[in-house]
Specification:
The structure holds two protein chains of two kinds. By secondary structure, chain A is of the alpha/beta class. Chain A is built from four helices and four strands, in the order E-H-E-E-H-E-H-H. Helix content of chain A is 42%, strand content 20%. A four-stranded parallel sheet of chain A has the order 2-1-3-4, with helices on both faces. Chain B is mainly α. Helices cover 70% and strands 2% of the residues of chain B. Chain B contains 19 helices and two strands. In chain B, helix 6 runs antiparallel to helix 7, helix 11 crosses helix 13 and helix 15 packs across helix 19. The longest helix of chain B is centred in the last third of the chain and has 52 residues. Chains A and B meet through helix 3 of A and helix 1, helix 16 and helix 17 of B.
Chain lengths: 103, 445
């Protein structure tokens, strides 16, 4: 199963996106688990994770996130602001799957 | 082109500041006080319900001291918040340096205690001063100890990690179990740090006839609290959060990460006024700027007070984007989350939206400040609901019906102020949508 984890400042706004992404995955019949956490807890939530996405408002965390995730072989990227704003679950999911494919 | 370069430079600068080890430790470490203030609030609220018949009823059943157990929980949460901050900061700092955090955290707590007196002086019945020993003076372990807690937490985290990095530790022969080795690792750093505390304690006692914690409170914390509490401080903080968000960076996490400790100290000072039996008024030294003023009247429905945009999108939106986004954004907005608006409308990097996004919260902050000043709202106590509490309910909890009413006024202001800016953006969106539609139709023909 693919596990996607989203991080933002408090894990609040990303949790809205979680539902949208899970819905998009269900429609496509993809087995995905999506979770959201505050960025300060990143290290605690990386077990079995396939890809990490950051909310655009914490994109300044990217270097630190890469430092933590890349040694574990987990790709990291920032969600596109427009997709994030419109809570475009399908698009974000698609990009996440692309990132995993590139691994 | 120029503007993207400028933006990139800005973001790099912000990143550098936010990613300094000290700021990260401060921001993340102070988060450990959250369960104390949030849950402690509930007990404090129950102890102070402003409805006399209820209080009389409770007193009738449980006796006049029925609130004592509630204040007991207040006392072990709010009144030791500096412990939690100090330990949290040292913990995060050390952990981020790649070492185990708990030993540093414990050393930080001891250092904090070591810089406070272990006795209190009380006046006896015969008006003579009596020194009571073997106590921790809680006067300094709550809000008044916050700045010292931050300094000690950072310093201990720094020195502890530095000594470990330089391998200034006791080396045990091979074959000693790792568990035992770990216990010995902290010995030398602890000895070094405690000696430092010992010397600082002596210096302040002998040279200045005070303690470090009292001195910091006087020369650093009081002026800093005054700054956060001045009208200028309120305007700058509010504007800065919006400006950072406009660049697409989480402004509240950054700015509040730094000033939150002081806001908390402000509200605890207010609570101390009430607990001493005095009325909570500006004349009695109450602070105006606290976390509640921020969460309830400045960042309500999200940083930038964007509820007005959401309302406009729902009721006056002509473009598909506005209509869709409005429906999507309203639910998170009720819980003070507005990333759909900031990134979706968008506000971030949108030159049209800069002005209202900065001005709407600043005007609200200033107006609320004066509402407290003239006494329409009372200064905030230590009762602090979670920031995700919906508007109106939040206002009611912190300031009764006036608090709720003022939140409605603030949201109305947001709607009026954002409307003209919304109209312009919506018209642009509509035009773009129609052009795309025409282009598609043109293709299919």
């Amino acid at each position: 199963m693919i596990k996607i984890v989203l991080f933002c400042a408090a894990g609040m706004s990303t949790s809205v996106l979680v539902t949208k992404m899970e819905k998009a995955a269900k429609e496509k019949g993809i087995d995905v688990k999506v979770e959201a956490f505050p960025e300060s807890q990143m290290e605690k939530h990386l077990d079995g994770v396939s890809v990490v996405l950051l909310g655009p408002q914490v994109r300044f965390m990217l270097p630190k996130a890469k430092q933590i995730c890349e040694p574990l072989g987990i790709p990291v990227d920032v969600i596109a602001p427009q997709d994030y704003g419109m809570m475009n679950g399908a698009k974000v999911l698609e990009n996440a799957l692309k990132l995993i494919g590139k691994k | 082109m120029e503007s993207t370069k400028f933006t990139d430079r800005m973001i790099t600068m912000i990143m550098k500041f936010v990613n300094t080890k000290a700021i990260i430790a401060l921001k993340d470490g102070i988060m450990y006080t959250l369960p104390l203030t949030m849950v402690g609030s509930v007990f404090l609220l129950l102890a102070q319900i402003p409805y006399q018949p209820f209080n009389d009823f409770m007193a009738g059943i449980f006796g006049n001291n029925w609130t004592d157990p509630l204040f007991q929980i207040y006392g072990v949460t709010f009144e030791i918040i500096a412990f939690a901050a100090c330990m949290g900061i040292a913990y995060v700092y050390t952990k981020n340096e790649g070492f185990e955090g708990l030993p540093a955290s414990i050393i930080a707590l001891v250092s904090f205690l070591g810089l406070n007196n272990s006795y209190v002086t009380v006046t006896g019945a015969d008006n003579k001063a009596i020194k009571v020993g073997s106590v921790i003076d809680k006067a300094w372990t709550g809000g008044k100890g916050m700045v010292t807690a931050i300094i000690v937490g950072l310093l201990v985290g720094y020195v502890y990690s530095l000594l470990l990095k330089k391998k200034v530790t006791i080396k045990l022969p091979e074959g000693v179990p790792q568990g035992v080795v770990n216990q010995f690792t902290a010995l030398i750093p602890a000895a070094v740090i405690f000696t430092g505390v010992f010397l600082i304690y002596i210096f302040f006692k002998v040279a200045l006839n005070t303690t470090f914690i009292e001195w910091i409170y006087k020369v650093l914390q009081t002026p800093l609290q005054g700054m956060t509490d001045s009208i200028g401080g309120v305007i700058i903080t509010t504007a800065l959060v919006s400006i950072l968000w406009w660049f697409g960076v989480h402004g509240a996490a950054i700015v509040l990460g730094v000033v939150q400790g002081l806001y908390t100290a402000n509200e605890l000072a207010n609570q101390a006024i009430i607990n001493s039996g005095k009325a909570l008024t500006i004349a009695n030294g109450a602070h105006i700027m606290t976390n509640q003023l921020w969460s309830g009247y400045v960042a309500i429905t999200g940083s930038g007070l964007t509820i007005g945009l959401v309302i406009a999108m729902i009721f006056a939106g002509k473009s598909t984007q506005s209509k869709t986004l409005g429906k999507l954004a309203i639910w998170p907005a009720l819980f003070n989350i507005n990333e759909p608006v900031t990134f979706g409308f968008p506000i971030v990097m949108n030159p049209f939206m800069f002005l209202p996004f900065v001005l709407v919260p600043v005007v609200s902050a200033v107006a609320t400040y004066f509402m407290v000043r003239i006494g329409f709202l009372h200064p905030f106590t230590a009762v602090e609901p979670p920031w995700t509490t919906p508007p109106i309910i939040y206002g009611f909890i912190v300031n009764g019906w006036r608090g709720a009413l003022w939140q409605i006024v603030v949201m109305a202001w947001s709607t009026v102020a954002y409307f003209p800016f919304f109209k312009r953006q919506d018209a642009l969106n509509l035009k773009a949508e129609q052009e795309t539609l025409e282009a598609e139709q043109g293709l299919s023909m």
